Amino acid sequence: MLNFILRRVLVAIPTILVLIIFSFLLMHSAPGGPFTSERPLPPEVMANIEAKYGLDQPLWKQMYDYVIGIVTQFDFGPSFRYKDRSVNDIIAQGFPVTLTYGSIAFVVAVVSGVTLGAVAALRQNTWLDYFAVGVSIGAQVLPNFVMAPLLVLVFTLYLGWLPGGGWEGGQIQFIILPVIALATSYMASIARITRSSMLEVLRSNFIRTAKAKGLPSRKIILGHALKPSLLPVISYLGPAFVAMITGSVIIDVYFSTGGIGQLFVNSALNRDYSTIMGITILTGVLTISFNTLVDILYAWIDPKIRY
Amino acid sequence: MRYATTKMTAALLAASFLSGPVLAAGTHPTTGEALADDQTFTYRVLDEHSSVDPQIVEDVSGAEIVRDLFEGLYNQDEDGNLVPGVALSHEVSDDKLTYTFKLRDNAKWSNGEPVTANDFVFAWKRAVNPETASPYAWYMELMSIANGADIIAGEKPVDELGVKAVDDLTLEVTLSQPLPYFPQMVTHSTTFPSPEAVIAEHGADWTKPGNIVSNGAYILTEHVLNERSVRERNEMYWDNENTILDKVVAVVINDENQALTRYMAGELDRTEVPAGQFPRLKEENPDEAINFPRLCNYYYTFNLSDGGPEAFKDVRVRKALAYAVDRNVIVENVLQGGQFPAYTFTPGATAGFEVPEVDYANWSQAERDEKAKELLAEAGYGPDNPLSFDMLYNTSEAHKKIATVMSQMWKQKLGVEATLNNMEWKTFLDVRGKQDFELARGAWCGDYNEASTFLDLVTSPSGYNDGKYSNATVDELMTGARTAENPQENYTQVEMTLAEEMPVIPVYHYAGVYMLNDQLKNWPINNVEQNWYSKNLYKVAE
Amino acid sequence: MVIDQTKMADLADNLAQMDEVKGRSLWQDARQRFFHNKAAVGGLICLTLVVLFAIIGPYFAVWSNEEIDWAIIGNAATMGAPSIANGHYFGVDDLGRDLYSRVIQGTQISLMVGIVGASISVVVGTLYGATAGYFGGRLDGAMMRTVDILMSIPYMFVLILLLVIFGRSISLLFIGIGLISWLDMSRIVRGQTLTIKNKEFVEAALATGVSSFTIIRRHIIPNLLGVVAVYATLLVPLMILTESFISFLGLGVQEPNTSWGALISEGAGTMQYGTIWQLGFPLFFFVVTLFSFFFIGDGLRDALDPKDR
């Protein structure tokens, strides 16, 4: 196991490097730059700005300095757009926001999805099952850019129960709507996966044996059926978590939460090179670590798998 | 952690209010209206501002905040006239090259230090210093301060800038050429003072809440990127007693429909009205839906450079396309917010500008269409040789609507095929700046309230003349206008030439279209530049 | 919004157990089972109707998808509701353009994005996986490590970057969306190829001197068909969803062309302004199609992987 983790980390380093170089080149080949503006700047003003941000250096030098800055000082540079802020600063503020509502939504989606899926499987072909399946597919296909404004319309404008946006340091009333909007489609996917794998497990021989032995059904479900049913759910969690972080663009746009999703899109549009790089690296590292974590979890639940 | 500290500051401030003058919950000192208990103004901004550093800020939403946090030599009143700020008055030397400003003696920074002429000297030198790399350094060049341009280009030391503190309350500015509108220019944020000691202490972090020291009516107490920024009453401000609003909150909401929903839910005091929604809102909330003219135009520019399409080199084609656009439909059926159909480049709201009588403005649309068909046929385009081109605009719901409507007007009236092509902002600017387009959208908001801010754009040397229209007479007229006794004559001639040669298609002139809480009073709707100051606003009781 | 990989692996295992002779009866069995699945058949019918709508619909349209009804422009809320009389069966959008025609056009584009995107992903994934699995050894190791690396890239971000940089174009959208999702496919195909490779019939073919290419073409690919078909069906809705997200960001297709994503996001913006049909019609077709694809995909998988026989 240790060997496996070590190998993963070793692969991660070149991966991140490739990611840095790729995004760096991609970004710099985009038309326009961070200081292209509606009113073209006089050349002498532009020259001063480029000198300040090191954009007058050759590209390889910029990239080299950038990587060295990260490795030696963990410094992602100044933001080209938000001139009062450094990228470290910006991410330190935006990432906790995304992580907070992302993780809560993740937990909500997993817990409610597994419950819904398991209930549907245990009561297969009853109204409860049909209801659960209907809800989960409906939630899966309703785009969250329809869901988000709908939630605000209902809970903010008509009912007046919850604020329609903002974050305010993460007070509970500001978290609820983003979490609902983000969690639903993942909850639906998880419910569908749980239901079908649970059905399969319930039909398998060892459950039949357990039933034949006369074990109480609660014990069968919790003690025998649940763990193997969750295997496919777990393999889904890695990509789901990452998708939640990247999918947060819509949440940020509609709920003004100030997370990194919207920040990434804005930075790409503003050509804020350093901020884009910072967020890309962050999500890259996150993706790798989460995939590794899921693999470890998987091995722990399913002893058949060896690395 | 930062959050906790800003909350602390907020708590401290709240406590200090109790001891300060309690104006809220009273009556307005001059009008006598009953004031609301909660004097908080919350408004929506589309995008996060770039900075609150007066010498660095470059966007409108940032400048709005900076105008509240800092105070320059002069301010604008509700109609856009100059009123004293830190300066009480000024004198001009006979050669019109030296301006001497007298500063008030009771102006203070939020840390209690007095505001002196040296703070302005420091700030102005900072703005032109190549190390500061201010994107608005060009503004200092425009102000023609002696040696400014050379310092920016790195050819002279910063200390040679033509500005000095004669004593603590006297600021002397030397210009390189006479500039009649120089006093108007010092209302701009780039010229605001900045606190030398604080910048030396905190470096790039000096604008963060907790560090920042400012001399305006408000201080920055909270700033969460892409979410909100909060400014609260500055107890040290010299006119604090007459400041009524306690707290101003700018909330970033990207989606305009979402912003409107939140306004309707009572979360905001001001938001923009999405295109097409004004008539309905006006009917439902007559006191809250407001509109007023703005100092901006909206047009499409032909690419007249050598690389541009051959067809547009023919003035008949340009005129035909310009005539066939039914501006009334765009204004009344698409935007629906009280915008003005445009037949001239300069908006009619511009101070001292008389809209010239250009011929096609007075025709009926049927006459224009008729003429357009004739002209296009004369130019040799018709069913067997249809005109087709690309029209470029930047990604936005409203631009898309206008481009779609214009292309359909051309298609249905003239049989012209205009292919829509939208690009995101930076790519759009890059492509347009390189003349890599055929017909492109353009818009301009006046830097100052005078027709030359618009008409300079169609002169050959203008950096913003992306269509590369060039007419020696126009250039000459605009140069002449700077020193002319009555520049209006020149402006009229330039507008007439534009109508005759049609290098651009004027489409409409802007209006500000807001939903504004009817409790909030004194919004400066007559200030076409929309330079508003929170200290002049107040909220009345319901 | 990801396909259940465990089930796909199961299915692949199951299909790999069959040998060629039984293969034929497998498909017959599967067809029978598929047509006994009510949800799957319902999905197939709905999908057929949607496709028919996209093909035949234009013949009933009174207005084209870009024509503006000058009598209605700007008054969508009061005069633009669905009406048989003026030919706007689905109402009009804010500019007075016929929503019926626009929905048809959106359907065509979205289905195309879904199908082409899924095909790209399936073709690339299959070729890559089959090559790695068949040749094995170092090549396999290197190819699969590459997949591991690529899997760690935050794709949605890269796609946004690409669209920003190269400008929007429908082909880039196809390629970008397709290339995002071939990685899982290649893993499954590789696994299955490994199993098939060790079957007697492949060994027999090898012994008689049949070339690698022929073996892949004659023996490996046909045995992969089942899993590929299921995967492709489940990928299409994911592609459509991705496209809708891209359209929401304003990086989708160019006007006057449109897609479900573009129509829905426009409609969602104006839903409280009394023009609910602008959201309703495109959303209806979007939801029905996605439902159908999910049911058909699930049905196909269950039919090919009969655990409860």
From TrEMBL, chain A:
Recorded hits in Gene3D superfamilies, A to Z, give: MetI-like
The protein's location, in the record's own words, is:
Cell membrane
Matching entries from InterPro entries are given as:
BPD_transp_1_N, MetI-like, MetI-like_sf
Q: Name one GO cellular component term.
A: plasma membrane
- Report keywords, A-Z: Cell membrane, Membrane, Transmembrane, Transmembrane helix, Transport
Q: Which PROSITE patterns match?
A: ABC_TM1
Q: How does it sit in the membrane?
A: Multi-pass membrane protein
Kindly list the biological process annotations in GO that this record carries.
Answer: transmembrane transport
Location of the ABC transmembrane type-1 domain = 95-294
Instruction: Report the family membership.
Output: Belongs to the binding-protein-dependent transport system permease family.
PANTHER family cross-referenced by the UniProt entry = DIPEPTIDE TRANSPORT SYSTEM PERMEASE PROTEIN DPPB-RELATED
Please report the name of this protein according to its UniProt entry.
Answer: Oligopeptide ABC transporter permease OppB
**Gene that encodes the chain:** oppB
From TrEMBL, chain B:
MF-aspect GO terms: peptide transmembrane transporter activity
Question: Coiled-coil regions in this chain?
Answer: none
As given in the record, the signal peptide range reads 1-24
CDD domains for this protein: PBP2_OppA
Could you name the Gene Ontology cellular component terms for this entry?
Answer: ATP-binding cassette (ABC) transporter complex; outer membrane-bounded periplasmic space
| Annotated PROSITE patterns | SBP_BACTERIAL_5 (PS01040)
Q: Which InterPro entries match?
A: Peptide/Ni-bd, SBP_5, SBP_5_CS, SBP_5_dom
Q: What is its main location?
A: periplasm
Cite the Solute-binding protein family domain residue spans from the record: 82-465
This protein's UniProt keywords:
Signal, Transport
**Compartments, as annotated in UniProt:** Periplasm
What's a Pfam family in this record? SBP_bac_5
GO biological process: any one? peptide transport
Asked if the keyword Endoplasmic reticulum belongs to this entry, the reply reads: no
Q: Which Gene3D superfamilies match?
A: Dipeptide-binding Protein, Domain 1, Dipeptide-binding Protein, Domain 3, Periplasmic binding protein-like II
Q: What family is this? A: Belongs to the bacterial solute-binding protein 5 family.
PANTHER family in the record, alphabetically?
PERIPLASMIC BINDING COMPONENT OF ABC TRANSPORTER, PERIPLASMIC OLIGOPEPTIDE-BINDING PROTEIN-RELATED
What is the protein's given name?
Oligopeptide ABC transporter substrate-binding protein OppA
Species in which this protein is naturally found: Oceanomicrobium pacificus
UniProtKB/TrEMBL annotation, chain C:
Keyword tags: Cell inner membrane, Cell membrane, Membrane, Peptide transport, Protein transport, Transmembrane, Transmembrane helix, Transport
Residue span, ABC transmembrane type-1 domain: 107-294
> Where do transmembrane segments lie in this chain?
39-62, 68-90, 111-135, 155-183, 220-241, 276-297
Which Gene Ontology terms describe the biological processes this protein takes part in?
peptide transport; protein transport; transmembrane transport
Q: How does it sit in the membrane?
A: Multi-pass membrane protein
Key word Transmembrane present: yes
A Pfam family it matches: BPD_transp_1
User: Which domain of life does this protein belong to?
Assistant: Bacteria
What is one cellular component GO term in this UniProt entry?
plasma membrane
As for subcellular location, the record says: Cell inner membrane; Cell membrane
Family, per entry: Belongs to the binding-protein-dependent transport system permease family. OppBC subfamily.
List the PANTHER family hit by this protein, alphabetically.
Answer: OLIGOPEPTIDE TRANSPORT SYSTEM PERMEASE PROTEIN APPC, OLIGOPEPTIDE TRANSPORT SYSTEM PERMEASE PROTEIN OPPC
- What name does the UniProt record give this protein? Oligopeptide transport system permease protein OppC
